[in-house]
Amino acid sequence: MKFSIGRTAFTRGLNTVSRAISTKTTIPILTGLKIVAGPDGLVLTGSDADISIETTLKADDPDNMLAIESAGAIVLPARFFTEIVKKLPKDTITLEVGENFQTMITSGQSSFTINGLDANNYPHLPEIQTNDSIPLAADLFKQIISQTVVAVSNQESRPILTGVHFVISENHVMAVATDSHRLSQRKVTLEKPINGSYDFVIPGKSLTELSKMIDDAQEEVSLSVTENQALFVIGNTLFYSRLLEGNYPDTTRLIPDSHDTRISFEAPELLAAIERASLLSHESRNNVVKITIDPDKKSVTIYGNSPDVGNVEEDLEPKTLEGNELEISFNPDYMKDALRSFSQATINIDFTSALRPFTLTPTEDSDSFVQLITPIRTF
Amino acid sequence: MKFSIGRTAFTRGLNTVSRAISTKTTIPILTGLKIVAGPDGLVLTGSDADISIETTLKADDPDNMLAIESAGAIVLPARFFTEIVKKLPKDTITLEVGENFQTMITSGQSSFTINGLDANNYPHLPEIQTNDSIPLAADLFKQIISQTVVAVSNQESRPILTGVHFVISENHVMAVATDSHRLSQRKVTLEKPINGSYDFVIPGKSLTELSKMIDDAQEEVSLSVTENQALFVIGNTLFYSRLLEGNYPDTTRLIPDSHDTRISFEAPELLAAIERASLLSHESRNNVVKITIDPDKKSVTIYGNSPDVGNVEEDLEPKTLEGNELEISFNPDYMKDALRSFSQATINIDFTSALRPFTLTPTEDSDSFVQLITPIRTF
Questions:
Q1: What are the residue boundaries of the DNA polymerase III beta sliding clamp central domain, all occurrences included (chains A, B) (predicted)?
Q2: Which of A17, A190, A323, B375 could in theory staple to A171 by disulfide, Cβ–Cβ 3.0 to 4.6 A?
Q3: B283: closest CA of chain A, how far (Å)
Q4: Do A276 and B84 touch (CB under 8 A)?
Q5: Of B102, B109, B275, the CB nearest to A315
């Protein structure tokens, strides 16, 4: 194998597949990245067994400055090889595989010889048909991810809760995540109905990595699903993730359909007040912030307290306030995550009682998005 | 004590004194910061016993928006208090000390009450006369610091080597640091001769912190020295550092005054080549890079090697090359630190033999700055 390529394009490709490569893998060859030179161009692959990323640097794209002299394949130590490429002196680099997988990388006067591995020993990627792929608007899909992954569990005790549950049929997409203390559910409508229906759970970690790969220039991401794998196509890059096995709990009945007290806020304003209150609650052993709502006095007050350091009290100014008097305590970190996911929107917070979960929904298009938080009993 | 102040100016002052405050102190009150409200304004103090920083927010500076209602003093938990001030909702904040050092901080509708400590228990700062202070140009002093601290030792086995040795008399300043593997010596000439002469060793850590406090707007730093303390005055801020006790070794005889081989380079070009070579040497147990110089062939070649990963070889193009043939090995990290301290300059590297220290000096004004590196024996 021998080819020359532009350093900028090559570095970009290496960075893309490096996202999937972990130094902590138990399969030594997965610390490497696979390079295959073929008639279409250069195919780079990285994998940690859960996630695999494959990107193609096309021979006919002049930006890649790619010239393949002879086809072939090699696996090179990923972190190390990427660092070398970044530091090479000239804009063009040449890579040539010699005997015993010894690989020579040259650029200007600089010449590296590094020990490669046989690409035949690199695991095969899953085979997924992309005929029935589901097209998703890239920015909307990124929003779905960021709004749901906040509620994903990071406890391995119930593995299924470490993923986001997707239910897709006709033109409806529902994504939901819960760690059993809080829940986030997002619904969107597709422009065109799809064939068939899908019900799968994708690891939160995969979605977080995937989201980082979708930049603003990207218009569409297409999704294909098999029994145990999902494939996302983003331009010239393929992103594979395993799916979580098992049944996701039925979450539809967890969301209350009525309320006894409702307050509404600009999300960023309430977020700033919760951040102040949590400065003190974080210094305390039980990280709790309390809100009292008094509809007669039209007052909402927030309290944070730490026996060692002190306490904070702040009168809030809700946009609206209706229903019963209430005093309720909660984990401010859950509240901060939830509020951030609404960015600049105005939201309703709906309560039933001090020990029942409460919900945050946008005042506009309120069916599309709900964050649910379970309060903390302090009495 | 009661005062109100602008949040921006207060935050800036808190950030300044926080540089001296460590969470790892063995003296509990030093995790706090001292606030004194007096006729001139607000004086903030932070200290970790080695370094102390005092800054004054003047009452007559309109930018501070400072109004002192009653004088007094308090010590407040530093990290925590600074975070509160940053997150307060309005531009003005009010601070009032009540009974038992309980301190109320209010801004807008937000009201914090935190537990303070008696300022009488806060250690006194050293008393230093500033009559005979030495004025130093701020940018030049920052350069002296950055060029010498690279060679400071971080081993506590010889504490005196963890500092930079300053010798100041008439209009000469010499600063030198060595960790016994390398040495850096900088000489500057003052515009006006000073009274008396000074010989002291200041901890490298103090200088690094001090350097961060000198921003580009600062024109002058004035220095006063006592037997065991140095005081730097930077605008409205005082920076105290303890001095290291003991005699600094005589370093003047370490610097060779002749050479048998000389090569010259643009510092950034050689730096880039050393960085590439060290990618491989870092993967090896002994972190060594080799240079061979052949004046007949007019060639300089650099080698890095790791048995596990591979090797690198690069032909360099020196600006000049004269003297004897040589093969010499060294720690590339020392070389990188040394080269960075020359920034964009052209330098001479002067060698005597493969086992004798070699020096880097700027081709212009070569007496003013020398970096010395001890080679590594590889045969």
A1: 136-250
A2: A190
A3: 9
A4: yes
A5: B109
Interface test with A, best of B109, B281, B298 (most A CBs within 10 A): B109
CA dihedral B148, B350, B375, B313 (to 10 degrees): 110
Q: Contact at 8 Å (CB) between B93 and B106?
A: yes
Low-confidence winner among A63-67, A285-289, B148-152, B338-342 (lowest mean pLDDT): A285-289
Looking at the partner chain, which of A109, A272, A283 has a beta carbon nearest the beta carbon of B80?
A: A283
Measured in angstroms, the CA of B18 and the nearest CA of chain A are apart by 18
Interface test with A, best of B7, B75, B85, B87 (most A CBs within 10 A): B87
Distance CA B151, CA B180 (A): 9
- The rounded radius of gyration (Å) of the Cα atoms in chain A is 25
Residue of A110, A115, A313, A316 best to disrupt the B interface, most CBs of B under 10 A: A110
All structural domains of chain B, each given as residue ranges with its CATH number in brackets, are: 2-121 (3.10.150.10), 134-252 (3.10.150.10), 255-373 (3.70.10.10)
Pairing of strands A320-323, A220-225: unpaired
What is the structure's pLDDT at A131? 84
B369 confidence band (pLDDT: 50, 70, 90): very high
How close is the nearest chain B Cα to the Cα of A115, in Å? Answer: 6
What size, in residues, is chain A?
A: 379
The Cβ-side half-sphere exposure at A208, using a 13 Å CA radius, reads 9
Beta-carbon separation of B312 and A77 below 8 A: no
Average pLDDT of adjacent 10-residue blocks, chain A of 379 residues = 97 96 90 96 96 97 97 96 95 97 97 96 92 93 97 95 96 96 96 92 97 93 95 97 96 93 97 95 89 95 92 96 97 97 96 96 95 92
Decide if A368 contacts A187 (C-beta within 8 A).
yes
Cβ-nearest to B110 among A110, A112, A312: A312
C-alpha A172/C-alpha A199 separation (Å) is: 12
Is residue B320 within 8 Å of residue B295, measured between CB atoms? no
Among partner residues A112, A308, A312, which is closest to B112 by beta-carbon distance?
A312
Task: Count CA atoms closer than 13 A to A2's CA, side-chain side.
Answer: 7
Helices A332-340 and A267-281 pack at an angle, to 10 degrees, of 150
Structure confidence at residue A379 (pLDDT): 72
Assess contact for B274 and B316: CB atoms under 8 A: no
Nearest to A71 by CA among A105, A35, A116, A47: A35
Asked if the model's pLDDT at residue B379 lies above 90, the reply is no
Model confidence at B243: pLDDT above 90: yes
> Shortest CB distance from A310 goes to which of B114, B310, B316?
B114
Under an 8 A CB cutoff, do A113 and B316 touch? Answer: no
Closest by Cα among B74, B80, B68 to B45: B74
How far off is chain A from B3, nearest CA to CA, in Å? 19
* Chain position carrying tokens 């970190």: A333
Q: How many Å lie between the alpha carbon of B30 and the closest alpha carbon of chain A? A: 16
